[in-house]
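Reading a protein record of the kind used here takes little practice once its layout is understood. The reader may check this reading against the record printed directly beneath this paragraph.
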Amino acid sequence: MRPGAGIALGALGVLAFSMSLPATRVAVHTLDPWFVAFGRAVGAALLAWAYLRLTGAPRPTLDQWRRLSIVALGVVVGFPLFTSLALTTQTSAHGAVVVTVLPAMTAVFAVLRAGERPPPLFWIAGAAGLALVLAFLAASGSMRGALSAADLFLLAAVVLCGLGYAEGGRLARDLGGARTICWALLLSLPVTVPVTVVAALVHPPQGGGAAAWTGFGYLTVVSMFLGFFAWYAGLARGGIAKVGQIQLVQPVLTLIWSAVLLGEAVTPGALVVAGAVLACVVLIQRTRGGAVPAHAPGGSSSAGRDRAGHAGDVRVADEVS
């Protein structure tokens, strides 16, 4: 466990993910949302295959494949699909409101799936950061209207993503951050390829425009691939619940990207709130406890390394990721 490295890698992952909603909003403006959700996973899987071949990665064990299916369900299929469907009718700024609860959801699954036990101060600081972001979003006018189908899609995305984050961070202790997302992407191909082909046949993607394809490219290379190299490595090193709270900064960053890319107005209060949220994140990182247990429920980390037989190789790969 190296908390300092975990925080740095987690922050890099959050920076990468903070542009995902605006990029999705741009992409689904002219491209079919099913094509965007699953096509980016297919493209990222091709990159994953090349990475695994170049690094000579050993195949996961049967238990690791089972856990990788949970990762795939959450971050390869669930979150991209439901956010793509939601953002066909909602703005990325509105999506940032619902995604605000993702750090809390990740922490809950860290307790349920990874056996972490954060102290009370952790939950207090996390709740304070959540309240600050929600208050800012409410004051900026991003929170308005009744619960819609798009909101339900976003809530489903958050639940599945929190599960995928927690399980992936737990599995990355054995496989490394890069290999975890790479194997999950390859495992998803029997689902992502047929859906992508059908979506492309029903709604041909030609003529989407440069902006839409740029957004799609970002989602493929960064949001679905490179961002997870840093994110999963950070969760594995610094603790899933703790590092996951860095995402409290993500909604504010998303609003900033929305203003830059989509022309949405951002008030000067964003900087003030961002500073306050960062203070909460720093307080969370200074709390003791919540460390990874020696034997997390559902499997042993040391046993996974022994079965893979490449503990040293995984550590080297994680240094790169």
